[in-house]
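ok trying again, last paste got cut off:
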Amino acid sequence: MLVSMSESTNFFSRAQGSVEVAARFAELHPALENTAAVTESQRCLYCFDAPCTAVCPTHVDVPKFIKKIASGNLEGSARSILDANILGASCARACPVQVLCEGACVMHRYNKQPIEIGRLQRFAMDALHASGDPLPFAPGADTGSRVALIGGGPASLACAAELRRRGVKAEIFDARPLPGGLNTYGIAEYKLPLAESLREIDLLAQLGVEFHFETVVDAAKLAELEASYDALFLGMGLGGIHKLGVVGESLQGVTNALDFIAGYKSGTIHAAPARVAVIGAGNTAIDAANAAVRLGASEVHMVYRRGSEQMSAFAFEYEHAREAGVKFLWHVMPVGVAGTTHVHGLELAHMETMEDGSLAPKPGETFMLAVDLIVVAIGQATHTEFLDRMPAQDGDKVRLERGRIVIDRETGQTSNPKYFAGGDCVNGGREVVDAVADGKRAGIGIAAWLAGQRQKSQKPAGGDDANA
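nice, full thing came through this time. structure:
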């Protein structure tokens, strides 16, 4: 299925079915009103060597865009954001600003609240969308080159934007029916509404990015694309969430966090049962637990084999879950799922630390937790095995380490010079803004590499000595 710029207005309408879900998932940080935004923007010190910009993976010029809000130049503010981050609206909502830009704000030195950078960024981007104005920059002059991008998530979207701004044709191939990757399917609705994720696709469509949906790219398809395109970008993210590996895991009522989140965002899941257990202690696990509460569960437990000090979720996410009423079971591990056709219990074992530092279940110390739904969130597998099956000459295969794609960090180029990569398939699963930064670097790198290839092809036979 190919979707081009002329069909871009259909994206937002496809998200309208999420209205009911959105009503139950009120945003954590509501939009700022105009007066509040201007007042907040005037608190900024507009630092010359702003630490907030330095810690932003995409290096948004924070003082610049905030100062333009203070002066009433909202279009200029949005342009400043988009120049650095084409997914500025998503990142304004989904970024962990507490540990990035706002965490670095100089106001902390004066024991004052940091500038609300995330909400101000959202204010500028919301104003652009509300105005109906087009994207404040246009595609570059056509170079004649074209690139296939595998996966429709933030890394590919950012890469495609950079390519189009440099006159390179960009076509995105994704296995799902909607673009956006985890922005669309995997981030909690109260952080990033589905409609907002899809709205950003219009910006890409305005640049002339084309989308091929419901297109699975395997080794054979990838070889076909390699033969047809001048370069390829690998941004397919990660694979499925790891299994528990215990008896009863295949019973009805056992799912994974990504499917659970995608289910309620798409409208296929409307409610949660009374008793829910979420396995894991990362940010995705927190999102799933909070969602279960909002979907009507009366008792939600998070189960983790280590203690709170070892959980990978951000501290503010943990506090949010506690405030929502989620209960935490530390130092316990699932060893079985009870039920006949549908789950009714989760068998848990207390953990102990062995002499070598590893964890193991204490013999004979198990108990049963009554549950109606188990949501597994213990990390995702890699999704790069098809690259090993690619027919390639010696030295041309895309190099992998532990299933992750190895790249040049400056350009995003892989061991096969025609292939570039970024996002979770490279970094193993980080924040949306990190994927955007990867895609941005790769887009610039691809355009530069293609320019070099064109120069080589235009060089006269015999090289510099041809006219000697």
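cool. The chain has 18 helices and 16 strands. The chain has three domains: 31-131, 146-239+381-458, 254-376.
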